[in-house]
């Protein structure tokens, strides 16, 4: 089912009933082609109504169905000579009009979804799918509008330049090619997106009470400053009564090139804080006598981010352990050295906020470490 759903996520597939009608119209009567096309369309709508339970949505089928229903009005008018020649063209005109009307509904519909009382994950899924639908609809509308404009220009050319073969291509074949190309383009685009999303870091989104209410890609969250609230862990390293600090990368999102703890990390979606601490410490956390101690949890906020910080401390007793956490330009700092360099752009924002607390509890942290002395 997952493989099927991946293919059905392509909103451009909703064009298939129209493309089927336009294709069959080249070989059968427009009436028979219409009956097959509209039957196929409503069968697809029925199937997708069943698949909604699996959270599969195909919204472009609705404009396709509306286009075919409106086309039936021309059948009732019995414009046989016109329909015989221009059925695909009339279908395109109706589709462009329908998609134009659909485009005006975007803001209203998305606002209703946003304000609905459905669970957060359902609202997020619907809004994401609808945004994809409106994106594809705009592409389809633009291409078919361009196609109609090309036909209009061709129709005013001198008869000596026009030809039956060119006319057939423009009126009957190019519309089909456009539809197939849109489907292929969208499938390729989605495949590339899935590839990039596999490498993406997914972060839990917290409400003001610290409860997880959803998730979002880190790259998206960073593009929307302070809009989302994420949990992070920070681990202070103490050795012989001094703090070990290392320079953050020049590419760091906050406080680049400033001194900070050697260990800090986002808590990923569906990961616990405790497991994140273990993963962040890596091989150091597996050393005998190394036990991370939880100190405090608080909210850190600046112009870029809003984080729920869980601050931990580890106390090292051996020089070999200190070597294991060596980082870029890392070194031990005494309390006096830190005090002399506070508020001078040397330390990260979060560290400067945490240091007064650490200063008053560092002896307590040392005592915590001594409660589990390393066995010789």
Automatic annotation (TrEMBL):
InterPro entries named among the record's database cross-references: NUDIX_hydrolase-like_dom_sf
Record bears the keyword Transmembrane helix: yes
Transmembrane intervals: 30-52, 59-77, 83-104, 133-157, 169-188
Coiled coil: none
Domain of life: Bacteria
Keywords on record: Membrane, Transmembrane, Transmembrane helix
Protein name per UniProt: Uncharacterized protein
């Amino acid at each position: 089912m997952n493989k099927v759903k991946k293919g059905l996520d392509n909103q451009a597939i909703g064009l298939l009933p129209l493309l089927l009608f336009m294709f069959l119209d080249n070989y059968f009567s427009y009436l028979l082609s219409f009956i097959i096309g509209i039957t196929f369309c409503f069968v697809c709508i029925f199937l997708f109504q069943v698949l909604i339970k699996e959270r599969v949505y195909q919204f472009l089928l609705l404009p396709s169905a509306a286009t075919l229903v409106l086309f039936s009005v021309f059948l009732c008018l019995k414009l046989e000579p016109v329909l015989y020649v221009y059925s695909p063209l009339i279908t395109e005109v109706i589709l462009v009009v329908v998609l134009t009307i659909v485009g005006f509904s975007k803001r209203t519909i998305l606002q209703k979804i946003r304000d609905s009382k459905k669970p957060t994950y359902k609202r997020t899924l619907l809004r994401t799918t609808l945004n994809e639908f409106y994106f594809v609809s705009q592409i389809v509308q633009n291409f078919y509008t361009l196609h109609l404009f090309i036909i209009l220009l061709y129709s005013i050319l001198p008869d000596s330049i026009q030809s039956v073969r060119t006319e057939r291509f423009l009126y009957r074949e190019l519309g089909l090619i456009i539809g197939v190309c849109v489907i292929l383009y969208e499938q390729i685009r989605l495949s590339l997106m899935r590839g990039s999303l596999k490498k993406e870091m997914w972060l839990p989104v917290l409400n003001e009470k610290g409860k997880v209410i959803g998730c979002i890609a880190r790259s998206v969250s960073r593009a929307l400053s302070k809009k989302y609230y994420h949990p992070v862990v920070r681990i202070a390293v103490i050795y012989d009564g001094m703090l070990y600090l290392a320079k953050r990368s020049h590419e760091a999102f906050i406080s680049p090139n400033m001194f900070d703890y050697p260990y800090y990390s986002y808590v990923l979606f569906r990961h616990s804080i405790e497991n994140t601490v273990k993963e962040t410490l890596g091989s150091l956390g597996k050393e005998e006598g190394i036990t991370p101690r939880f100190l405090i949890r608080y909210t850190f906020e600046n112009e870029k981010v809003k984080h729920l910080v869980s601050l931990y401390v580890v106390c090292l007793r051996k020089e070999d352990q200190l070597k294991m956490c060596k980082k870029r330009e890392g070194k031990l700092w005494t309390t006096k050295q830190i005090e002399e360099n506070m508020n001078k752009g040397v330390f990260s924002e979060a560290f400067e906020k945490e240091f007064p607390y650490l200063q008053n509890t560092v002896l307590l942290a040392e005592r915590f470490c001594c409660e589990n002395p390393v066995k010789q």
